[in-house]
Amino acid sequence: xxxxxxxxxxxxxxxxxLVASAxxxxxxxxxxEATGEQTLPTSEDIARQQHAMADHPFVSMDEAKSMFGPSxxxxxxxxxxxQNYCGNNIHVHHPKTYQEVAGLVKALKAQGAKVRVxxxxxxxxxxxxxxxxxxxxxDSFKSITQDPNDYTxxxxxxxxxxxxxxxxxxxxxxxYGRFSYLKMNTLVQAVTFIGAAQTASHGSGDxxxxxxxxxxxxxxxxxxxxxxxxxxxxxxxxxxxCLGMCGIILDVTLRFSPETTGVTVTQIKAPLKDFFxxxxxxxxxxxxxxxxxxxxxxxxxxxxxxxxxxxxxPLDPKKAEIYTAxxxxxxxxxxxxxxxxxxxxxxxxxxxxxQHEPYYDKDLFIPADYQNxxxxxxxxxxxxxxxxxQNSNYMPFFGGLVQNSVLVMQPxxxxxxxxxxxxxxxxxxxxxxxxxxxxxxxxxxALKVDDDYTNIYDAWWALIDINNEMFRDTGSYPMxxxxxxxxxxxxxxxxxxxxxxxxxxxxxxxxxxxxxxxGWEEFCRRVLAKFATIKTKKDGSLxxxxxxxxxxxxxxxxxxxxxxxxxxQLERVKEAVFKTDPTGMFRNQHLSEVFELPY
Length: 599
Description:
Blueprint (H helix, E strand, L loop, with lengths): L2 E4 L36 H12 L18 E7 L6 E8 L4 H14 L3 E3 L16 E3 L7 E3 L6 E5 L4 H9 L22 H6 L15 E7 L5 E5 L5 H4 L8 E8 L5 E11 H4 L12 H7 L3 E6 L16 H7 L1 E14 L34 H8 L12 H14 L5 E6 L19 E9 L5 H21 L7 E7 L17 E9 L5 H12 L12 E2 L12 H23 L8 H7 L4
Parallel strand pairs: 3-5, 4-5
Antiparallel strand pairs: 1-14, 2-3, 6-7, 7-10, 8-9, 8-10, 11-13, 11-14, 12-13, 12-16, 15-17, 15-18, 16-17
Helix pairs in contact: 11-12, 13-14
């Protein structure tokens, strides 16, 4: 790994190195063939598969505390990760075997009960469980196996988190020369991969969403039948991302990429206006956002509101536009580096990782059990205990302050380049200590990109302009954490906001706010009203909501808007859902409303 620092002046730069290794035995996988529409495994097949996986359990090198809900039993009140949606009187189940899950489904169906599988509950949306629902957590299913005849085929169970999957991918014990990586960038570490797939979650890059990397899956339908499906099944790409409405996904087999080319990651601090001019200011020779995205296979753009005013004392609402005109943003881009080979070694990976979202960045979080660890004292001195709450959780408000401070301290020409040779290098949103972040709100949409990027510039400035208007009018600015952009190619999963054809490019735009910020709901309503007027010139498509990052309490008309923006896609999903769960056992009230299905 090599670093190159280019600065117009010398500044203080702190860089910690995370040295970690994992001891993981090679994994074997029993191959279950799936041809035609479906293959029904026998009870012996399932038992053998579970036994084979149990013989090689995978344990993360630093397994986070359990985020899979409370202990088993009735009467629980549980909230989603965003802390903005709560299910009351929830019946919690933690089954241990596939047969136990199937038996539970059969018994609950006979009772006419509602059932949801919630993963680690990492969302802000109404896809959660209604009051009185039976919630199944699959945290007992933690195995990862590798096909001994094809090392690019990796099978993982429903309780496996992205952290565990990434550690597996990087393990030297997979065998030298047998390395392959998942070119999928939605890697919030504490989240399960299958949970991310079910919400059609994305990262940033030239690939699709999680579901696009799934080759086969094992699912239980509403009758309690266990089936294995592969891509030959006509509804397969619906099953991979269906918000849990088609059934309970027990395991999936992923297709890793055999490529071993390393990458170079570039971080740049630049004036906001240099990357985001108004659309009317762009032309064929001046289109900075388009140029940046087209020249990088992945990356992100992050902007913390009013960062140019961080040293000027209390903010003045009358100067909102002046602040914006002088603000800076972070641009991060990933390019492939021919000749830099991926190597079976995780040592030397900098703790800064491959992204730059400082308020969400790994090196800024100091979990309670790491407070006395070597290397953290320096950061505690730099950040100050006042930026941590009593549980050592990182405060989003101060996260924005940290990013603003970093932006101001670094000179305008600041640039950092680093080469990476591990699977982390292709990841975005790869956050190890997310469970230690004080909760925030997040609002996100996907837009198909016009050739001139006009719709992207318009949507971006809609967030900033509405935030400025509300700051002037009320003295409070709702978008007080950040606005961000990521990009990706098309997805073949109908549920995805990036559903499209080969050659399509999509940009994801999101706004974030500290939990409980006054005016957040009004901000979201104004943004949605503006987005409803921004249509892609190519096909007239509207911005499409991220299933995990919208909420009807913020925008009461979100169900109707989703049907307007994604009508044909919803019909395709609806058709498949009705086959596996016609009575709505796996649906909550909100999803029944959005998809116009029986509840």
